[in-house]
Amino acid sequence: MEIVPEGKNFRLVKEDELPALADFLVQYMPESLKFHQTIQTYLNNKVWDFHFYVAKNWPEDPICIHFPGCTSTPNNLTYESVTVFCPSDRVELVDLLTTEDILLDLSQPLYLNFTHEAIVNRFEKYYEAQDKIAGDVYVCDNPPEDTSADDLPPDVELVRLQPEHMKAVHDLYPASDIECREVFEKLVAELPAYGIFVEGKLAAWMVQSYYGAMFSMQTRPEFRRKGYGIYLARRLTKEVAARGYKPFVVIRPENDASRSLYSKLGFEKRFRTVRAVLHPR
């Protein structure tokens, strides 16, 4: 699909401008963390072909977006999904996107990846948000030093994952409707990803995402409640931080087990995000 260099209210950011954009976003941490680290992984590893835009009146209007917002949508169109950042006290800037009729087809649904809930609330003035999923962002400022797995049983191993493991991972990934298997294969080829293997069988896993988060911690049902998650989380937290990223996770509010696990590692809640399909009113 042709990439549009300029919309009604936004312009495409050139690749050599991206470091400056990332630097500018630091002042809005932690709210800008996900967008900032998406730029960082794009510049470092290019695991997916994202296109970044800023408001034409940037930086006075500090709103930025990237397309696609996720790696799988019903029609797999570049401008069918989006990720948005603006400061939560400037949510009126979202109106620049809800009136953006060059980049977007405003008559069609828009797939919104995890975005600050204040931004989603503003979208709901113009869209009906369906299939909403909330996720709380937890951030770790002091990664654990001890990542040893020496006390695992002899038949259990902590192993770096490879692309050939990704079919099993993607098949059990709860958001496989918005993230394609191909992106998982690219992630594990470029970014940290680990699995717990029991007698040679993949039992649990965790991956660093294209937006810098630690995500997709999954355990096969028959291997749950054995404490494998803490080994994965400790190892990935330390490695993500060592690569220059701020470790963070998105935890659904009802997921008490994940919240307990990450709290033990020093993760603290910062804000709530929402994923949704936006249907024009």
From TrEMBL:
<dbReference type="InterPro" id="IPR000182">
    <property type="entry name" value="GNAT_dom"/>
</dbReference>
<protein>
    <recommendedName>
        <fullName>N-acetyltransferase domain-containing protein</fullName>
    </recommendedName>
</protein>
<dbReference type="InterPro" id="IPR053225">
    <property type="entry name" value="Acyl-CoA_N-acyltransferase"/>
</dbReference>
<feature type="domain" description="N-acetyltransferase">
    <location>
        <begin position="156"/>
        <end position="281"/>
    </location>
</feature>
<dbReference type="InterPro" id="IPR016181">
    <property type="entry name" value="Acyl_CoA_acyltransferase"/>
</dbReference>
<dbReference type="GO" id="GO:0016747">
    <property type="term" value="F:acyltransferase activity, transferring groups other than amino-acyl groups"/>
</dbReference>
<dbReference type="Pfam" id="PF08445">
    <property type="entry name" value="FR47"/>
</dbReference>
<dbReference type="InterPro" id="IPR013653">
    <property type="entry name" value="GCN5-like_dom"/>
</dbReference>
